[in-house]
Fold each of these.
Amino acid sequence: MPATVVVGTQWGDEGKGRVIDNLAEKSQMVVRFQGGNNAGHTIVNEAGEFKFHLIPSGILYPHVTAVIGNGVVIDPRVLCQEIDALRGRGYSCDNLRLSSNAHLIMPYHILLDAAYETQLGKRKIGTTRRGIGPAYTDKAARLGIRVQDLADKKILRQKLDTAIGVKNDLLEKVYNSPGVDPFEVMEQYAAYADKLGPYIADTSLLIDKALKRGEKVLFEGAQGTMLDIDHGTYPFVTSSNPIAGSACVGAGVGPTAINEVIGVCKAYTTRVGEGPFPTELEGALGDHFVNKGIEFGTTTGRKRRCGWLDLVVLKYAVRLNGLTGLAITKLDVLSGLDQINVCSMYEYDQDGNHINFTDFPPHQSQFYHCRPVYQTLPGWKEDITGARMLSDLPVEARDYLDLIVEEAGVPVKIVSVGPGRDEVVEPDGN
Ligand code: GDP
Ligand code: IMO
Ligand code: MG
């Protein structure tokens, strides 16, 4: 299948980076299409561990062109750091391309992200404070500064003057916080322009040409379906659309180009930041996932909230993304549990109304009050990190996978049993 979109089916951190790394071996191009350096995608290979925030996870293969599409918001400071860090480890980054239409995260976006969160107090979103929301806000408000603006210092200065005037007023007069120095910002961004210049390209055209040559192109989602600004647990979401449809907009390809959509689903659930999470676990069981799954944010280091797998959420993700296949990750983390719960339905009881939701509730306040209804399956004790074929897995683990496939109505293409590149089971053996 030449064009495959890979998306998260939960609240992010499902293991998208490692799945992309697995699929990229047989692909020629990997394209990020939304989000920014709120993302943290981890890959573990023979050379050690890599954490990517902006650079597409395919960069480690010299045969792959790694593309940052127009839908991504780019903090050039972070991108320059990532390029330097990779170069320091022997990767040239000559295969990196950056869309000239992508928007830039500016220093005032980061200050505003923090100011909004502080002002919200107890009602805060729990953002990564990387300036993501304010950057997308400016894109929609047509006040944004784009990668192509870096190419012309005169235009960059004009756009900066307009934007900084407005933003400094907001920071200083409304949020009582220091503004930014326009000269300093101009100097910094002019330096980024020199460094990033060689990577800037018409990436929509590059992708089209690759597809026309019959090459395999992967579209790498960031965040997850439940963090989607339209379909997720609003307002506790990110400011972009992590669902598969967004790949077309954020990369500049038509929907008919996409052949396959793989949903990455952790064998349990995690969430970072605030917002509802029906299957969340506290106490010893929650700690099992935190400790065994090493569930700490790749970007902010925050402890992730952990809970059982939620099939209502997974079915919602199947629908919203048009999934054609699943990648189930971190199955090894379930080893050692006596019993495993899976949420197959929600119960809602308010004001004399009793509703059983097998589909995701249409109203946010219903979701807030839902209680998970669990099916309980027997666990397994064996260490499964050495499994490479389905038949290597204990029968209880295979039954768990069968239940997921049956409920989701979508086949499993990849099962991961450890963070390493080879720690996978591919049921079809492809
Ligand atoms: P992403 O944001 O979706 O790419 O996921 P993250 O990289 O933020 O988080 C996934 C974490 O789980 C990373 O630390 C991975 O190295 C790790 N990981 C991925 N797959 C597996 C697996 O099958 N088993 C275990 N134990 N860890 C895994
Ligand atoms: P990857 O790609 C998990 C969460 C934040 C917060 C909310 C809004 O690694 O899966 P933002 O900074 O985007 O305005 O924060 O979204 N969030 C993520 N959670 N994984 C991510 O990315 C995330 N990116 C944002 O924690 O709750
Ligand atoms: Mg992550």
Amino acid sequence: MLYDLGVIGTGPGGLAAVAEARRRGLSVLCVDRRGAGGGVCLHEGCIPSKVLLHGTHLYRHACDDLTHWGIGGGSRLTMDVKTLMAKKRAVIAGLARGADSLLKGAHALSVAGHAYVTGRDKEGFCVSVHKKESRDDKGTLYHVRTLLIAIGSMPSRLDVLPSGVMDSTSCLSLDAVPEHLLVIGGGYIGLELGSVWRRLGARVSVVEAQKHILAGMDKDIRQAMHRALTKQGFSWHMGVRVESCHVDKGVYHLTLGHDDKRQETLRASHVLVAVGRMAHETDMGLRAMGVAYDERGFIIVDDGFRTNVDGVCAIGDCIGGKMLAHKASGEGVRAIESLCGVVSDRLQEEHIPAVIYTDPEAASVGLSEDALGDSRCAYKKGVCFFRANGRAHTIGAMGAMDGFVKVLAYDDDRVCGVHIVGTQAGDMIAEATQALRFSASCEDIMTQCQAHPTLSEAFVEAAAAAFRASPHHP
Ligand code: NAI
């Protein structure tokens, strides 16, 4: 059979593309080496980490804060890590069933294995699917008219680290609380997984090459998160790199190098490396077919996610940019529209929100104040602190009142960036994302009627403050 579309990789990007293709009546062949839909996001990324973050948040919340509400007995509470892990597996299994139902059915075939594009003929492309990546088995051959590559990315490695060092996958599956977890990389993964194990009692130290955690985020977010996590007991080694690491009797010994050549040594029972993600090393036969890659190994695509080879599109982490599940899904839908000849508006990088699910949460969309300063663009700024928000007071616990909403706008009042630290920041950013998407002004936002009492009133107040502010001229 000749399928209209072959989708290689069924993470959030591939799944969204399959759903859109099936809505449009295309027959689809899906191939994923995992043998289940959902990709890294579902099986070893966003979903499991959020289960662990939520469970450990409940635990800490109960231990630390409920006495203020007259709820006692906190000191007797315990958290069973094995049960927490079982809960995580149950959530993954439930969502995986949903993903699989999307991949199967009329005009859709889902195949487990490693795909290799062996070439093209006058009808389309030949895809050989193998049990192993080495392709030493015979493989099964399929034919597809067009191809969508959605194979994601892989964790970056550090050559100085010995085997046994954890990546995010293994750190999500520990069956006991580490005594001292040393996290290399103060980004999304480092702070989220560091939070999980810190809440359960691990000592957590973060080694970060830059002078700040969360590089690329707005400076006020970076500082607020640094303060909040320090209060929770994180310790920091900033502006240093790991120069060497060895294991002796189950203990990791690391030598860290500072920019001024100073060295320090650290010992830890567990090491997690979370220094970003990189392109997959395998090219699945695409290079031989002439598909162009950039110097970092990412597939080059145009605005419609088309590669330079007619009939081949690529989306998600494998084309670079922000490595976020929701970016991949948005691109998946647009790539199918583009294959079907529909011209849709581009997914703009600055309209893609980012959330860090620590406590407090941090969420951002659009330009940071640092980026506006660098571009020498006049801008206005308004901030509303949650301590001025009624709903934050009613929530009270776990630093709900420590956060803020910061709205940045161009000189003409159009909102160009929103940055939030606080409880539920990850949900609140949705409204800000819409504001940017529809080019809302601060005046539009401040004149809307927001329900009371809600945390979202702080967004309206911050927009009103930005509306009234005089522009900064960097
Ligand atoms: P990241 O890019 O967020 O952070 C990596 C950090 O490691 C950076 O601060 C970088 O300066 C530091 N670093 C790099 N080399 C280093 C070295 N040699 N020594 C010490 N520090 C070093 O990457 P991360 O945390 O690994 O996450 C990977 C991707 O997964 C991210 O791009 C993120 O988009 C995605 N992700 C998203 C989440 C979310 O949406 N909540 C959660 C987890 C991951």
